[in-house]
Amino acid sequence: MYDLIIIGLGPAALTAAIYAGRREMSVLVIGKELGGQLVWADVIENYPGAPEIKSFELVNNMRKQAEDAGAKIKSDEINLINKKEDGNFELQSNKTTYNAKAVIIATGLSPRRLAIPGEVEFNSKGVSYCANCDGPFYKDKTVAVIGGGNSALDAAEVLSKIAKKVYLIHHKDTFKAFEALKKEIKERENIEIMVNTEVSEIKGSDNVKKIEIHNLANNSKKSIDIDGIFIEIGRIASTDLFSELVVRNKKDQIVIDEKGKTKTPGLYAAGDVTQCEVKQITVATGQATIAALDAYNYIKEK
Questions:
Q1: What is the pTM of this model?
Q2: Cα→Cα distances 178→58, 156, 271, Å
Q3: Can you tell me the distance from the alpha carbon of 113 to that of 234, in angstroms, rounded to the nearest whole number?
Q4: Cα 188 off chain centre by
Q5: Cβ distance 66 to 25 under 8 Å?
Q6: 225 and 142 in contact (C-beta within 8 Å)?
Q7: Catalytically active residues, by annotation
Q8: Angstrom distance (rounded) from CA 144 to CA 190
Q9: How far is CA 85 from CA 78, 177, 243, 262, 294, in A?
Q10: What distance in Å separates the CA atoms of residue 202 and residue 121, rounded to the nearest whole number?
Q11: How far is 94 from 177, CA to CA, in rounded Å?
């Protein structure tokens, strides 16, 4: 029986573990990928006190702080959670069963998929959702970036420094991104912008070799030879696991109050998985701090 179990391994989860551990709570942090979305960025430039820090360095600092505060970190995946009659929580994975007096959900967001032929088959074989993670594998090669927001344009900018050629493909005629980023993209000679265009299929043998595209403006179709495709069309909240215990908005994000509480007493959420519109590391860590401290008060009163 733990005082607190935190589901996730990103900045929100690790921050909650630090504050809960410093309150002398017994804490278990469970997740599959250390750092979550944080590691999708190479360098973090807007974290207070660290104007330029590698993402892996920042997340490892957080992990060490959490462990130094007494938190245990375990690689596992929760697939069932229930609140028992005694008010405690039971969490199950394929490996074991865990029990806790309070739980914080900090599972972040997952990449949105194109849902086209070839996407699943070539996942990690040329299909990627993280330019900063996989970009170095495409030095002097040809790649495509799909999307029209800040993440897509940022990925194209990063890849333009590595790849020989970058196709930036967007199904609309305008980009929804920062003006400075749009200007920078247009100035890169090795980035070819293709608007009003959809990718209809990804093809290859052992790895990605080409994509089929459809120009929505003139209804033309053609193939483009590429070595890799980076899909940057947004992130989704995978919260079905908690559907009976929380209220969710139209984006399946968990609705919380100002203390991180969900509709179920003792169950909290923090970070990008919540309905908060601003998705930033500092917001996630702030929410996690509040949730952890309120969970401490909840357990003490209980």
A1: 0.78
A2: 25, 14, 23
A3: 8
A4: 27
A5: no
A6: yes
A7: 130, 133-134
A8: 12
A9: 20, 49, 19, 18, 22
A10: 9
A11: 41
For the chain, how big is the Rg over CA atoms in Å? 21
The Cα-based distances of 240 to 62, 71, 136 in angstroms read 28, 27, 34
Q: Could you give the CA distance from residue 116 to residue 113 in angstroms, rounded to a whole number?
A: 8
User: What is the sign, positive or negative, of the torsion defined by CA atoms of 116, 120, 121, 127?
Assistant: positive
pLDDT score of 175: 95
| pLDDT tens-digit readout, 270-292 | 999 999 988 889 999 999 999 99
In angstroms, the CA 175 to CA 149 distance is 6
Phi, psi of 215 (to 5 degrees): -80, 115
Superfamily designation of domain 2-109+237-301: FAD/NAD(P)-binding domain (3.50.50.60)
Residue ranges of the domains in the chain?
A: 2-109+237-301, 127-231
